[in-house]
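Supplementary notes (optional reading)

For those who missed the lab, this is the record we used. Protein: Replication protein A. Length: 246 residues.
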Amino acid sequence: MWSTNLNTSINSDGGFLNNTRKDGQGGNVQRVQTLIPVTIKLLHSISPIEDPTFWGIKARMFTFVGLIRNVEETATKISYDIEDDTGTITALKWLEANKQETDRVAEVNTYVRIVGMLREQNDKRHILILRLLPLQNLNELTNHILEVIYASLKAEAKLNKNRKLKKNTTNDVSNEDDLHYGMSSQQSLVYKIIYAQNDTECGIERSEIKKKVPKSILSDVDNIIEFLVSEGHIYTTSTDDHFKTT
């Protein structure tokens, strides 16, 4: 994209950039640096800002592309109002004591890529600029949009995979419980309907059970209740048609 010591591209792991350095004993120390491509709207939607997380990924730094709409310069900092198609945010660049050539002010109506960290002061969010680079051509803008889409889709796929694994684990536990009680899925359903009314004085009445079950097993409810009674899973209360679980 352009030559810089800070890699702003996204790898196949959805934004994690691995840097390896040598420690004092000559061994390798792994440091994970998270740089996530975003739109300005996404920057405003992060919560909480103290420990920002994007798509389940802890985020330390962000990169985005926008158009400079306003510039204010003081002796200690340069303030940019940056706009993209999704919103506007202020980006601050603090100046060194001896102003360098790299601290020159970017011009209004110039497209730039910014790498920085999200901050908040007086309930207003801004970006602390680590790197500001003018775009060489609009292909870089298109590339950034694709990076945002790619990162969000990949992260969403990971989240869905984790949810599916969690759901399967929950289902496995539920199935183990049903097998433990020697129940089929239909018997377990009726049992749970009865169990939900255990706090009432007389439990639940047979006709109410039939109202709560799917129509596909309605004709089997009486047989299921008889099975649950015979196995000691439920018992009658005030009448032969009122039940509670044991």
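If you only remember one thing from this example: The chain has a mean pLDDT of 79.
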